């Protein structure tokens, strides 16, 4: 190992210890060993310099003054705090100010509460919300329009029997009346014939099916049932158009439902009569 | 406030003094000051080489100590806590003054700093005969950056990782600076000895 090589490792070796090779160089090189001895001596002597200097008394005097200053400031703050705490009751003016502030706050809170209640009452969303919602639901098939193309029996099962009582009564009265008057007066003589263009055809297969059933069992009632079905269908058509033009009109919806129910009842009565 | 020059709290322990100082006891402050003033002042003096500034820094360090003593939880020795605080106060002052804590030329090996091969020259060994006063003067003559690292390591006994943390340099940098500082001191001491020997 050369002196240059040794001096390169000197900064680490002097504090962390020497390898065998470095020790060997130190043993053979007086310059490097002298250098290491000097550096060790400097380091050793430097440790003795720690805390060997005494500060001047001025230092403590200054510190003491500063501490005293801080303490007196703290005392002053504490005294003021105590004075505030122990001070007498505030003047009536202060109390009046506080009372009026409380009153003002109270009325503001009341106003806020009433506004909040008003907000609660006005929480209904705009009509557009339901419109959009309904359109989306219909697109997804979650809302379906009642369909007249359904088969007769399942369709009829949807309607309640309670509606049948008055309608049945009315139809029976009409049938009885027609049966009694048929020999002397022709229906065609009593009721002026409608122009062919105004008569709506009964194109629904259910209608045709029902009328055929009526024809088989009570041919005399076919015209009555045909008339009834025609007027019910016209009613349904009107109601459907009304719902289409105003989908949010609950009354129109209700009319449409009633019309469907009427048709269902007519079907039921016709079939009931037609059954053997 | 009693006179700090005549400690009268002989029976007070450091731990008791710390607890009392936390409560604002002036005598406890004074006791702690007397216990640690030499070490703090010496540190400040070595780092600044100026007595007035060292006194100022000592005062600042102790005032900071008294302000923060409420936060001392005893996780380290009180002296360690205090001296670290003092070192930070000094380093902060050096930074404010724009003095380099780590030399800018720390990676450049100048001819002056490189150990010389003194072939043919009479080698004056320092070992065993270093004059303490001369050593103090030589330390004062060190460039501020070298001096900081030397004081923190060789005098105050901080490890290189602690110095790196406090000063804001790498551990390798700290080691390098220390070596250069020692080499410089050796040179200064030898020069001084040679001058002394040359005088009639």
Helix content of chain A: over 70%
- Shape assignment of chain B: elongated
Q: What class do helices, strands and sheet pairing of chain A give?
A: mainly alpha
Q: What is the subunit organization of this protein?
A: heterodimer
Strand content of chain A: under 5%
Sketch the major β-sheet of chain B: none
Write the element-wise H/E pattern of chain B from the N-terminal end onward: HHHHHHHH
How would a crystallographer describe the biggest sheet of chain A?
A: none
CATH-derived architecture of the largest domain in chain B: Orthogonal Bundle
Total helix count of chain B? 8
DSSP, total strands of chain B: 0
**β-sheet strand percentage of chain B:** under 5%
- Count of individual helical segments of chain A: 12
Task: Report the uncertain regions of chain B.
Answer: 105-122
Distance between the termini of chain A: 129 Å
Total domain modules of chain A: 3
Please identify the structural class of chain B as seen in this structure: mainly alpha
Helix/strand order of chain A, N-terminal first: HHHHHHHHHHHH
Query: What fraction, in percent, of the residue positions of chain B are helical?
Result: 55-70%
What's the domain count of chain B?
2
Low-confidence stretches of chain A at least 5 residues in length (pLDDT < 50)?
A: 120-128, 146-157, 184-198
Notes on the structure:
The complex is a heterodimer of chains A (276) and B (200). Helix content of chain A is 74%, strand content 0%. Chain A is an all-alpha fold. The radius of gyration of chain A is 55 Å and the shape is elongated. About 13% of the residues of chain A have low confidence. Chain B has 200 residues and is mainly alpha-helical. Chain B folds into two domains: 84 residues, Orthogonal Bundle (Rna Polymerase Sigma Factor, Chain: A); 67 residues, Winged helix-like DNA-binding domain superfamily/Winged helix DNA-binding domain (Arc Repressor Mutant, subunit A, Orthogonal Bundle).
